[in-house]
Write a structure and sequence with these properties.
Length: 174
Amino acid sequence: MKNFINYGGFLIITCLLSNLSFAQDATQRQTMDQSTMTDPGQSQRFMNDLNKRNPNTLNQNIEWVDNKDGHYGNYTLDSVIYMTRYDKKGNFQGTYAKKDWNDESVPVSLKTSFDRSTYRGSAVSSYWESTEPNNKTYYMELRNDKGKSSNVWANDRGKFSTTPYSQTTVTPNK
């Protein structure tokens, strides 16, 4: 009986630790519907392309992820978190830097548009700004008052969309 109680306690603790670990991992990922990329060749093509665009990413360990809009990978350079996106066809769509929504560098026009949008009742839990000079778009992860997460994209005119804005394919620097 004592062994049974010890074994039961062990199972409960194992389940609790497993759930805690899963919850932490889930909060470290973006809230986009996603799955880890299963095609190593595609992952390598993205790495090669990104390394040509930004040689500082050569030693980065990037886990590429598939979602309904294409593929993305997150990485950190000089304490800044970046997200690089590719569309479903594998075309480069841009790199975004994670920033603080409350920072004064967030365009006033974007904040004004957000405050007038249907999303105004949600809190911005994560804000990303395009680093591409010819593609000023923004990505935001939102949480409403009921705790439901959603994602929204905005262009430089403050127009919001639930799908990313596309850009013309940009050839990497050789």
